[in-house]
Amino acid sequence: MLTRKIKLCHINAHITCRLCDGYLIDATTVTECLHTFCRSCLVKYLEENNTCPTCRIVIHQSHPLQYIGHDRTMQDIVYKLVPGLQEAEIKKQREFYQKLGMEVPGDIKGELCNMKTHLDQRNGTETANKEAGEEKPEEDNDYHRSDEQVSICLECNSSKLRGLKRKWIRCSAQATVLHLKKFIAKKLNLTSFNELDILCNEEILGKDHTLKFVVVTRWRFKAPKFMVIFLNNLVLHFRHE
């Protein structure tokens, strides 16, 4: 079977961000035209614009951030094609959190562990615990979530809706606004979660925004201690569209 080798430079145009000219990190796609950018680059751009940076099509007149979404497939492709990119990005994120004196989120820890396991297997240095018939130590059998947790206060900001009986919930910092919409709609017996808006500081949040993303983007100029306080006591409002 014939194989054809393609140089990375020949496909760079398809896996780089038009805004920063670097390889895509946390690839995010505009749902209107399917152009993809780094999430941080696109969010910063949309703070002052409502059009796609590539084709200039209007994403949304007032809330363009609600019409972008994480493109996991594209990000996986980029990590597969560019050697060492994923490892370098995870290392940068870990150093960033350590510099702020904050605990490294669980998802980054998990990726580091998976990456180390993959390298160990590739180099033929698997641990003795993986031998046939040998059970893992009891301390490794932890089925609880190890990622960063956040406490949220969900306040009703509409006279058309009744408030939640239990407005304080605790969940993963990687939970999205869409998760919260579905949760509230179920608790209030609404016909569709699309009837709800989730707000923070009177700003409507995009459905793909994670709670961690809300903290970082809304409190990025604050001292680390304020970020931690806000993360553990996040107050959001919900209302009818």
TrEMBL record:
<dbReference type="Pfam" id="PF16207">
    <property type="entry name" value="RAWUL"/>
</dbReference>
<dbReference type="InterPro" id="IPR013083">
    <property type="entry name" value="Znf_RING/FYVE/PHD"/>
</dbReference>
<keyword id="KW-0678">Repressor</keyword>
<keyword id="KW-0863">Zinc-finger</keyword>
<dbReference type="GO" id="GO:0008270">
    <property type="term" value="F:zinc ion binding"/>
</dbReference>
<dbReference type="GO" id="GO:0031519">
    <property type="term" value="C:PcG protein complex"/>
</dbReference>
<keyword id="KW-0805">Transcription regulation</keyword>
<feature type="region of interest" description="Disordered">
    <location>
        <begin position="123"/>
        <end position="144"/>
    </location>
</feature>
<dbReference type="InterPro" id="IPR001841">
    <property type="entry name" value="Znf_RING"/>
</dbReference>
<feature type="domain" description="RING-type">
    <location>
        <begin position="17"/>
        <end position="56"/>
    </location>
</feature>
<dbReference type="InterPro" id="IPR032443">
    <property type="entry name" value="RAWUL"/>
</dbReference>
<dbReference type="Pfam" id="PF13923">
    <property type="entry name" value="zf-C3HC4_2"/>
</dbReference>
<keyword id="KW-0804">Transcription</keyword>
<dbReference type="InterPro" id="IPR051507">
    <property type="entry name" value="PcG_RING_finger"/>
</dbReference>
<keyword id="KW-0862">Zinc</keyword>
<keyword id="KW-0479">Metal-binding</keyword>
<protein>
    <recommendedName>
        <fullName>Polycomb group RING finger protein 3</fullName>
    </recommendedName>
</protein>
<dbReference type="GO" id="GO:0007399">
    <property type="term" value="P:nervous system development"/>
</dbReference>
<dbReference type="InterPro" id="IPR017907">
    <property type="entry name" value="Znf_RING_CS"/>
</dbReference>
<keyword id="KW-0539">Nucleus</keyword>
<feature type="compositionally biased region" description="Basic and acidic residues">
    <location>
        <begin position="123"/>
        <end position="135"/>
    </location>
</feature>
